[in-house]
Each structure stands twice: as structure tokens, then as C-alpha cells.
Design brief:
By secondary structure, this protein is an alpha/beta fold. The protein contains 11 helices and 10 strands. It has helices at about 30, 55-65, 80-90, 110-120, 130, 135-145, 160-175, 190-200, 215-230, 250-265, 275-285; strands at about 25, 35-40, 70-75, 95-100, 120-125, 155, 180-185, 205-210, 235, 295-300. The protein has a 6-stranded mixed beta sheet, with helices on both faces. Strand 4 (about 95-100), helix 4 and strand 5 (about 120-125) form a beta-alpha-beta unit. The longest helix is centred in the middle third of the chain and has 14 residues, at about 160-175. The two termini are about 30 Å apart.
Amino acid sequence: MTSPDVPGSPALAGLRPRLPSPLREAPDERFERRGVRLLLKRDDLIHPELVGNKWRKLAPNLAAAAGRTVLTFGGAYSNHLRATAAAGRLLGLRTVGVVRGQELAARPLNASLARCVADGMRLHFVDRSTYRRKNEPETLAAVLRAVGAEDAYVVPEGGSNSRAVRGCRLLGEELAGRADVVAVACGTGGTLAGLAAGLGTGARALGIPVLRGGFLTDGVRALQSEAFGGPRGDWSVDDRFHFGGYARTTPELDAFAEDFAHRHGMAVERLYVAKLLYALVVLVEEGAFPRGSTVAAVITGRPFP
């Protein structure tokens, strides 16, 4: 596949992604009794370490970094930080992760941050007030000075910028004509913004936010404006399925994920994918999808060991 949004740079050759990712039928009586066909878009199989939308968003930015230090942001359990650190190891790039929560520096690192360090990422902890101001030029300049990387290539939290959105447009293009509704779990909204742009006419994209706050609609609009100069595609969000917010689950969600894994023979990541799949089961029971329609769920990640 050739596209300006899937970099063919020799610098990325060592990553060897599996594209397009597999699209698989998922027979499920909860959908079948409503006359709805369920497909799973297995973006979790793109790459063993840059999983799913992490590849699609990071690859264009890694190509643009052109060998410079890559600095990015995330919380203590950020899959984006983990993927960036892995990319740095695989490509021989220096990476810096700015982590929300200065108090974390004094504690033993959790498994996710420890993996980042093992992959060569330098962690720089900042207090939550500074983190909230990370996009302000003065704050960002101070962070870059503090880590000695004034010329670093900066990737925003979650990896969502105009390059990432255009990279995710390829996801929509891979699914164009294959489904009536394509649903994806959302953090910062970059994947949804690109997906909707790539689907074309006759299909809609559905975002399931995993954070509380109801801010995602404005965020997706802003990202599409930055990437494409204006709105693209037919898309919407449903804010009901965050289960209390990011990195939060409930016994009900855990039980659902275990059941789905048993039904379909795939491990279900809890923070994003489980919430997406749960939402689709509720929506099909509510009659949100007409009989005869096909719904595709984008599996953006898998459980990390």
C-alpha cells in the first residue's frame, strides 16, 4: 500500500507492519438475533509492540522526526508512552516521556513505565499543574530545556496531531465499503477523526470515549480542521460507556471482557477495547443498528503482559 500517510521512509523499514490489518467475521448471537453482522478489524495485529492505532498515529510522526529525539506525554499507564519507547528502541531513536504526576518519581515504577525505561526512554516527571499547561509555549520550552532536548520532535499526548489523523485516514480507507458503521474506542479522538475521513460516503464512524467529560466532539472537530481544513465524514460519539473514566473498570466490565474473550478466542484489552465492545452489545440491544447492517469494531490494542 502506498500513500503519503503511510510513510515508506527507509528509517521505518525495521518496523515491518502488517497492513492492511485483518478484518474478521465475529459470529455472535447477540447481534445475529437483531439481524446485525459483527466484524472485528484486528488492528491489534499490525505490530507486536506498536499495536493498532499506535502504529497508525506514530509512524507518520516518526518519519517526520528524521532521527531527532522524540519527546511525548502521558500518564502513568499510558500505552502511547509504551509504544513510543518501543519505537525508539527498534529505530535507534532517543525518546523522552513527560509523565503526569511528580509524586510518581519517588515510587517504584509500575510495569508500564518500567517497560518504557527498559526500552531506553528517559522519564521526566512533572506536577499536574505543569502537565495541564504542557501545550503552552513557555511551559513546553521549559520542559525541553530541563531534559536537554531543545531540538526534540514533540508528539502530543496520545499521539494525536494532524499527521496522526492523516495516518488514521488509511484505517477508514481499508474499511470503506465493508461496513455500515465502524466503531472505535477514543481517548484524544485522533483515530476517530482520521477514520471518519477515510470511510467515504455511505458509512458512519462511531466513537466510544473512555474518558469522562464530554469534550471529545470538539476535539475531533479541531483535529479534522487541522488535518484536512474542515469537517470530514459522518461521525458521532456516545459518552455513556467510560465506566468512570480513563483506566477505570468495574467487575461488570471485567466479566463482560472475559465472556467476549471466551466467545471469540481473543484477549480483550480493558481500558479501551472492552468498553467499545460492551457499548456495541448495548447499542445492538437498543436497536441502534438497523436489521441487515454490518458493524465493524476496531480492535486498537491488546492486553500488555
